[in-house]
Design a protein that fits this description.
94 residues, Alpha-Beta Plaits
Length: 94
């Protein structure tokens, strides 16, 4: 178990280290995602489009940011997630 897990989601329109590596990690099956960890920074985060818990708050601050590989905005990626999944993401406190 990790005591801290900090993910860098994106850096503007940077694709690091390259589009092929980003696509390889984005396409990993769920079992490989749990088992493997990259040895370098991969941006945008390979699974940001699959995670409502990332997209919901990102939509609050950058709804029009466009994924440099997928070509989708945060708003579009969030709309593609299941409604039930999106509704589970709630603010921690006001």
């Amino acid at each position: 178990m990790r005591t801290l897990d900090l993910d860098l989601i994106a850096l503007g329109d940077a694709v690091l280290p390259d589009a092929a590596t980003q696509a390889q990690w984005r396409g990993l099956d769920p079992e490989a995602q749990r088992r493997l960890a990259p040895d370098r920074l991969i941006l945008p985060h390979p699974r940001l489009q699959d995670r409502s818990f990332v997209l919901v708050p990102l939509a609050d601050v950058a709804p029009d940011w466009r994924h440099p590989v997928l070509g989708l905005t945060v708003r579009e990626m969030l709309a593609a997630r299941p409604v039930a999944e999106r509704s589970e993401v709630v603010p921690l406190g006001v």
